[in-house]
Amino acid sequence: MRTIATTAELAEFCELAKAQPYVTLDTEFLRERTYYSKLCLIQAALPPASGKAAGGPAVLIDPLAEGLSLEPLYDLFRHKATVKVFHAARQDLEIFFHDAGVFPDPLFDTQIAAMVCGFGEQVGYETLVKKIARQPLDKSSRFTDWSHRPLSEAQAAYALADVTHLRAIYEFLSAQLDKTGRAPWLEEEVAVLLNPETYITRPDEAWTRVRTRSGSPRFLAVVRELARFRESFAQDRDIPRARVFKDDALIELASTKPLTEADLGKSRLLLRDARRGEIASGILAAVKAGLEARDLPKPAPEEPGRPGNAALADLLRVLLKAKSDAAGVAPRLIASAADLDAIASGARDLPALSGWRSEVFGQDALRLAAGEIALSAQGGAVKVVPVSG
């Protein structure tokens, strides 16, 4: 098991990869004690040589090695002639985006491809290894400390398995997409992964992810300022936002609106370190800013799916199940439950109604909402029936 620990070795491997149609990749990282993921290991494997059954070179790349630059890898990411293959790539891509502002392009995500090919929702790598590569997979090293050196043989073997089996999975799924003509469906989904907006967390928008029961604009203004402070503080110091204060403490602070450190001392949910020093000062300033704000946030609109639309939402669920079964695609990849409720409530600017989803489901969903079609149970199947006017 070869480990690359120098820039020269990495450049040599990446030049080999550039001559290949694809390279499989994965990462191991830690995030328990940081805001941004700490990259600990990169795995890569090349396809088998022409006429040979065995796979090509598979390596571990040690980003923690002193003096190693990942620029040769990022140069490979920019190399359009080689497809970069990941499974469930979002977290991997987030690391590379924040480290260097670069994405692997072209990208093939086997988890998304598997959903498009009918393997179910959020299908795991282990499942694909069993069903496609027909190999067992040892996951015993999954939750180990990847920052510790040296890596054990078990860790190295586990890490390499995440890219060696991926070759067979990629070749199978790629062939399936070509056979069914669904490669453009995958490209639509991958475009979201390659959009920088997917990985940018703006402190000004952090409050929208905090679940609250009160819709009071003044209360929401305090929530907004507290969430903004917490996000900025966590980003600047690269610590988890929960280390600053958790959501339940944020809601408590927005409700009690403390004005002094003595008030903070009465909190039931605030961590001890947050009751003094920089965090305490930030909390008090945020509460003050929220109480004095003139640009008050508007409460979120009512959840879609009000009683008047419940029947239509239920019909849309039946239609989605029928259409996804017929297409052999995971229903969740087409539309979520929230999407169906939104369509039933009149929303039309949704991914479920555009692109390949429109062909599979969206067009008939709009026809159903408009009363142009009905659903009929025929035996064990659901049929779309035109409604004569």
Task: Supply database-style keywords.
single chain, 389 residues, alpha/beta, two-stranded antiparallel ribbon, 16 helices, 8 strands, flat, hydrolase, nuclease, ribonuclease D activity
User: Any low-confidence stretches, pLDDT <50, length ≥5?
Assistant: 304-308
State the distance separating the first and last CA atoms: 70 Å
Shape label:
flat
Radius of gyration: 25 Å
What about the largest sheet? 6 strands, mixed
Percent of residues in helices comes to 40-55%
The number of helical elements comes to 16
Query: Strand-and-helix sequence, N→C?
Result: EHEEEHEHEHHHHHHHHHHHHHEE
As a percent range, the share of strand residues is 5-15%
Q: What does the average pLDDT come to?
A: 92
Which sequence of strands runs across the widest sheet?
A: 1-4-3-2-5-6
Query: SS-based structural class?
Result: alpha/beta
Q: Give the tally of β-strands.
A: 8
Subcellular location: Cytoplasm
Catalytic activity: Exonucleolytic cleavage that removes extra residues from the 3'-terminus of tRNA to produce 5'-mononucleotides
Organism: Paracoccus simplex
Family: Belongs to the RNase D family.
Short précis:
With 389 residues, the protein is α/β, with parallel strands linked by helices. The chain has helices spanning 7-18, 71-77, 90-100, 110-116, 125-133, 153-180, 183-193, 217-237, 241-244, 247-256, 261-264, 277-292, 310-327, 331-334, 337-344, 355-369, and strands at residues 2-4, 22-30, 38-45, 58-61, 83-86, 107-109, 373-378, 381-386.
